[in-house]
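for the recovery benchmark. tokens below, seq after
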């Protein structure tokens, strides 16, 4: 869909993309190369996030700081829309993104209607479409400057802006820097979210990469560095132990290679054109024409993959074809919430206004979700008078002033299309989020705080690749404020009773094709299904992967060493697999619903290494420990897209 143009902050990343090749699995699964210095937890969140920063230990080969290129974009202005009597004006800087449909429906278009949900709650919303994060930050800074001057109701800037959740670390870091220039005590905060990317942000490549992830070695992918789509690719690489080469001067035949572009549409066009680049080979390999290139020599390699979103993926399907969705936010369904970012100091003085705004937003989400359920069950005809999804799409078109209402309506869902080569390709996919989904996501229902997991994972990722740009980020507790969601829950209990629209799994549902495979050595007490103290850290790593890939089915494969009775080991491996599943369910809560996991027992039938020496009759303790493992196989769920 035609939503976010790439920001100049993301272009900034492109200028820094000159680091040497790294194995992405070392970032995700532990390494001594990148150390995060975390100060002790405070008893309460401080008012200045700068006092609680996560910082990187100095490393070698840091990319030099490069000033962000000027895009020359014109800063739009808020339209001079008359204010309804008796309501509070709120200004929102936003992207062109289908996750904003609840905002559009709650307002009934660009101008707040007198009978809209926002107006009923005492809010008049003004929209400003801004496709660049630095400009969004500038809006909040201007708002803060007028507040600092003594005006409690600033007329300049925006009260809030929306961002992708997996970009939270660097965006909040940059926002706080801008706000501290106004007042050292000023800071930004996340107060909730209005929707999710649910498939549109994706990693596209040849079908063989989907069938066999290791065949992606030697591939060349085009896209915007550190963007949400790039994060999808990196996360997929981690899950499949596929090395990733970020050095654009070199080509590694044993890694997935990358070529930066200035926008997601340029990434699509680069793949469509099959553009070739010249690079130095790090090992003997073949160029795009099949010719042998020796190590240290230059060869030409054609782009054969892209990280992009709609309409980039739609353009690829219509103009090139031959590639499929390798992974997307359909599987990594917790990766990209549409966060609402505001100024903490203003928020504290306007709690009731924010609670009312959130209540209207979540009620609109409930209406859209209810219509979606009826549409999918056939209980309501599409685009009928009762179809609130159709109303939302029409209002979104008015706010975005882009494409057509039918476009926003169709690609709200994941849609399967046939490309120019006859392949089935998934396009689009967004969702809106209500109050229960917010409460569950942030662990306010007693489960794991998914927001913190996602925030830390992708902030660490950006910091690992771009330390010159991002060598610190605020801690999660300093940027997320649950107060407003909890206040909304208390003031509007009926909103809490609505369905959370979380992934549901049935025992008979097909598991689909494999998305990733993760092997963990989880230590148990000898001969028992009880974890040792050392197992907790490993289990947390497994939890992180499964929490982000929340819409994927999981198989937990239990293994033992070769010592002991074969039948007893088979039973033991089953019990250990069940112990892992029980731990994940307890820890993850709503992110790990019933029937999501299946346990498969192997006993000693599939040893990772030989741990017994027939010549001496002795078992090797270290090798036995390697065999006592649990393997998580993650599967995408097929059959969910509309035709």
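predicted aa per position
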């Amino acid at each position: 869909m035609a939503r976010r143009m790439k920001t100049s902050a993301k272009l900034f990343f492109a200028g820094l993309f000159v680091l040497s090749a790294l194995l992405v699995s070392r970032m995700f699964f532990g390494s001594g190369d990148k150390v995060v210095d975390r100060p002790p937890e405070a008893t309460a969140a401080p008012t200045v996030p700068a006092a609680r920063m996560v910082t990187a230990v100095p490393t070698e080969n840091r990319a030099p700081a490069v000033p962000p290129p000027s895009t020359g974009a014109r800063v739009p202005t808020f339209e001079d829309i008359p204010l309804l009597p008796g309501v509070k004006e709120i200004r929102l800087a936003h992207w062109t993104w289908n996750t904003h449909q609840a905002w559009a429906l709650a307002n009934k278009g660009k101008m707040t209607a007198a009978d809209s949900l926002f107006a009923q709650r005492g809010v008049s919303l003004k929209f400003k479409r801004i496709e660049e994060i630095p400009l969004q930050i500038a809006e909040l800074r201007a708002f803060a400057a007028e507040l600092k001057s003594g005006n409690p109701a600033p007329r300049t800037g925006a009260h809030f802006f929306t961002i992708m959740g997996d970009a939270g670390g660097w965006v909040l870091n940059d926002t706080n820097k801008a706000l501290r220039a106004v007042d050292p005590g000023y800071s930004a905060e996340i107060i909730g979210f209005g929707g999710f990317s649910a498939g549109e942000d994706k990693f596209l490549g040849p079908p063989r990469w989907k069938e066999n992830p290791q065949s992606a070695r030697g591939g060349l992918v085009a896209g915007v560095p550190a963007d949400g789509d790039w994060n999808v690719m990196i996360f997929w690489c981690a899950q499949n132990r596929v090395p990733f080469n970020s050095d654009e001067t070199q080509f590694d035949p044993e890694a997935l290679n990358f070529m930066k572009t200035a926008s997601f549409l340029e990434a699509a066009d680069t793949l469509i054109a099959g553009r070739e680049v010249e690079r130095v080979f790090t090992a003997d390999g073949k160029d795009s024409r099949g010719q042998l290139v020796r190590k240290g020599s230059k060869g030409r390699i054609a782009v054969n993959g892209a990280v992009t979103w709609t309409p980039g993926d739609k353009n690829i399907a219509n103009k090139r074809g031959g590639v499929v969705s390798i992974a997307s936010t359909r599987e990594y369904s917790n990766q990209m919430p549409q966060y609402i970012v505001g100024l903490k100091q203003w928020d504290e003085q306007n709690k009731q206004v924010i609670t009312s705004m959130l209540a209207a937003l979540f009620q609109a989400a409930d209406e859209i979700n209810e219509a979606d359920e009826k549409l999918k069950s056939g209980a309501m005809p599409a685009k009928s008078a009762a179809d609130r999804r159709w109303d939302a799409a029409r209002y979104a078109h008015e706010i975005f002033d882009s494409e057509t209402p039918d476009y926003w309506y169709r690609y709200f869902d994941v849609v399967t299309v046939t490309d120019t080569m006859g392949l089935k390709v998934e396009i689009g996919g967004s969702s809106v989020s209500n109050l229960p989904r917010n409460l569950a996501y942030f662990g306010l229902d007693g489960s794991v705080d998914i927001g913190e997991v996602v925030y830390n994972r992708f902030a660490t990722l950006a910091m690992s690749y771009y330390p010159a740009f991002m060598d610190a980020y605020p801690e999660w507790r300093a940027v997320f404020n649950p107060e407003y969601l909890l206040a909304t829950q208390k003031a509007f209990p009926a909103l809490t009773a609505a369905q959370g629209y979380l992934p549901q799994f049935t025992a008979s549902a097909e598991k689909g094709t494999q998305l990733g495979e993760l092997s963990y050595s989880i230590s148990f007490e000898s001969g028992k299904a009880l974890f040792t103290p050392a197992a907790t850290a490993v289990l947390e790593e497994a939890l992180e992967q499964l929490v982000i890939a929340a819409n994927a089915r999981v198989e937990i494969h239990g293994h033992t060493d070769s010592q002991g009775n074969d039948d007893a080991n088979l039973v033991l491996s089953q019990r250990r697999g069940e112990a892992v599943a029980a731990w994940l369910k307890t820890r993850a809560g709503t992110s790990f619903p019933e029937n999501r996991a299946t346990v498969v027992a192997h006993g000693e039938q599939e040893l990772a290494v030989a741990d017994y020496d027939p010549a001496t009759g002795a078992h090797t303790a270290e090798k036995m420990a390697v065999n006592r493992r649990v393997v998580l196989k993650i599967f995408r769920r097929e059959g969910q897209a509309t035709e």
